[in-house]
Amino acid sequence: MKLKTLFTALALSIATSAFAADKATLKDGVDAEVKAAIEAAQKANSDVPTGFAWRDSGKQLEDAIKAANGGDNDKAKNLAAEVKTAAENGVKQAEAGKSAGPRF
User: Fold this and answer.
1) Mean pLDDT of the chain
2) Could you give the angle at which helices 32-46 and 73-98 cross, rounded to 10 degrees?
3) Of 19, 47, 49, 87, which is least packed with CB atoms within 10 Å of its CB?
4) Which residues form the signal peptide (predicted)?
5) What is the dihedral of CA 70, 76, 80, 82, to 10 degrees?
6) Entry pTM
7) Are 81 and 33 in contact (CB under 8 A)?
8) pLDDT tens digits, 31-51
9) Mean per-residue pLDDT, 64-86
10) Residue 23: which of 74, 72, 64, 53 has the closest Cα?
């Protein structure tokens, strides 16, 4: 019974932690090229099947948005590019894994 209570508390904690912090959003005056890079990274990241995004892409996207809002366009574009590349690799791995089997 104590184990069930522990898991219930853990699940509740995880569920509510998602609402604890507001997501970073791009300000209106952000450079158009940076905005496009971040939006492309967000799109690519959303295409990755669950379980294949092993990197903390959400944190990197948030950092990219904060950098863009702060005017550090180079950092924002670099972070967005990293997220996009990782997401594209995740999609490729997911596709390759569909037909994977034992090598005999």
Assistant:
1) 81
2) 20
3) 19
4) 1-20
5) -130
6) 0.69
7) no
8) 999 999 999 999 998 888 776
9) 95
10) 64
Cβ atoms < 10 Å from Cβ of 38: 23
Q: Residue 27 to residues 34, 39, 72: CA-CA distances in angstroms?
A: 11, 13, 13
The Cα 8–Cα 13 span in angstroms is: 9
What are the two backbone dihedrals, phi and then psi, of residue 75, each rounded to the nearest 5 degrees?
-65, -40
Separation between Cα atoms, residue 66 and residue 76, nearest integer Å: 8
Torsion of CA 60, 51, 22, 43, to 10 degrees: 60
- For the chain, the distance separating the N- and C-terminal CA atoms, rounded to the nearest angstrom, is 46
Are 80 and 61 in contact by the 8 Å Cβ rule? The answer is yes
